[in-house]
Structures are given as C-alpha cells and as structure tokens.
C-alpha cells in the first residue's frame, strides 16, 4: 500500500542514545510531505488527463473505424456505379456500332443500287443513241438513194416527153401562151431548185401533196429509163421504212 502524506506526517521514530536531531528530522519530513503531496496531486492530474486522452483516442478510433467503414462502403458503391456505367457505356457503344454498321451497309447498298441503276440507264441510253444513229444513217442513205432515184426519174426522157406534150396541149388550148423553142429550152435548162421553188409558189392557190418515196432495204439500181410505175412501187415500200 502506497504511503500517503498523512502517514509520513504521523510516523514516529524510537529514541536512542546518540540519536538524530529531532528538529532536522521533522523539517526534512515536512519537506518530504510537501513534495510527495505535490507529486500525488500531479499524478492524479496526469491520470485524469490520461483518461481524457484515452477517451478521446477511443472516440477517434471509433470515428476512424466508422470513416473507414464509410470509405469502404463508398468505394464499393463507387465501384458498383463505375461497373454499371462501364457496362452501360459498352452496351451503348455496341448498339451505336451496330446501328452505324447497319446504316453504313444500307447506305452502301443503296449507293451501289443507285450506281447500278445509273450505269444501266447510261448503257440503255447509249444503246438507244447508237440505235438512233444507226436508224438515222439508214434513213439518210435511203433518203439519198430515193432522192437520187427521183432525180434520175425527173431527168428521164419520159418526163421530157410528158412536159413537151403538156406544153403542146397548153399551146393548143391557149394560143396566146404559145412559147418559142427558145423559151422551152430555157425551161429545160432551169435548175431543179428553181423548179421546186416555182412549184412551191404554185401550191399557194391549189392544195397539193408531196409524197416521199423510200427505197426498199436492198435498193435496186435505178436506170434513167425507169417508168413512173417503179416510183409508185418504191413509194409503197418506203411507207414501211420508218417503222423499222
């Protein structure tokens, strides 16, 4: 059991011969009592402070544990949220990639179809153009042959005889319009274009029709002695030419 200041104060010593000075011993004991009392008081204060510190330490330890637990829970929640966000982002990215790939495939197919349609249309137009050119060349050749054939017919002796007989009939019907051989020769010498112009002017008063005669697909050689009946047959054959 620890001594108290009161125990030190009440302590009595036995007297012996040649003993110590009682006053000095008492003074020393008084000093010890004072110092010991101060030490005890300070010790109590320190114990009290230690208890307070221990309580604070316990509080902070509990708070630390709670904070650690909160941090752990928050970390777990953050990890879960992050995982969910990553999964959702991956799903959205996958859907976006699939949608973009589908759109790209559809656009590519449409573009290819448009290019194919345009190419087919261009080829068709080219074929039609070439066919039209071919038909135009055939028509030009037939028209040229027809015009040359008609020109040969116009220059034939039959036409000259017909014109001569027509002139004689006109002179017989109207002596006032008698023509000299020189005027008849001038009529024969007139160019075909002037004759056509005069014929066009004459049609102002009367209604006339011009029939274009086309040769057949395999035109025969037309001689200067062709009869008007041959021109009629050529006209019937040419009526079918534009339909080819």
Provide a brief overview of the structure.
Helix content is 77%, strand content 0%.
* Measured distance between first and last alpha carbons: 144 Å
Order of helices and strands: HHHHHH
Beta fraction: under 5%
Shape: rod-shaped
**Radius of gyration, in angstroms, nearest whole number:** 70 Å
Mean pLDDT: 74
The biggest sheet, with number of strands, parallel, antiparallel or mixed sense and barrel status, is: none
Beta strand count: 0
**Fraction in helix:** over 70%
> Could you say which structural class the secondary elements and strand pairing correspond to?
mainly alpha
Number of helices: 6
Residue windows where pLDDT falls under 50 for at least 5 positions: 176-182, 187-210, 212-244
Protein name: Cell-division initiation protein, DivIVA
Main location: cytoplasm
Biased composition (Basic and acidic residues): 176-209
Region (Disordered): 170-244
């Amino acid at each position: 059991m620890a001594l108290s200041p009161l125990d030190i104060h009440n302590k009595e010593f036995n007297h012996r011969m040649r003993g110590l000075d009682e006053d000095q011993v008492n003074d020393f004991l008084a000093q010890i009592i004072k110092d010991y009392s101060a030490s005890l008081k300070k010790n109590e204060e320190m114990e009290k402070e230690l208890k307070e510190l221990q309580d604070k330490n316990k509080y902070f330890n509990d708070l630390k544990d709670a904070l650690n637990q909160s941090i752990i829970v928050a970390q777990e929640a953050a990890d879960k949220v992050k995982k969910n966000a990553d999964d959702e982002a991956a799903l959205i990215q996958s859907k976006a990639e699939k949608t973009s790939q589908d759109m790209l495939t559809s656009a590519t197919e449409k573009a290819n179809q448009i290019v194919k349609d345009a190419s087919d249309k261009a080829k068709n137009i080219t074929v039609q153009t070439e066919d039209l050119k071919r038909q135009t060349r055939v028509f030009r050749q037939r028209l040229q042959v027809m015009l040359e054939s008609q020109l040969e017919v116009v220059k034939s002796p039959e036409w000259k005889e017909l014109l001569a007989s027509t002139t004689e009939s006109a002179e017989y019907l109207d002596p006032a319009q008698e023509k000299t051989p020189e005027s008849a020769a001038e009529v024969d010498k007139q160019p075909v274009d002037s004759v056509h112009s005069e014929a066009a002017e004459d049609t102002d008063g009367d209604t006339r029709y011009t029939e274009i005669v086309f040769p057949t697909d395999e035109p025969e050689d037309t001689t200067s002695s062709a009869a008007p009946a041959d021109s009629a047959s050529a006209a019937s054959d040419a009526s079918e030419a534009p339909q080819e």
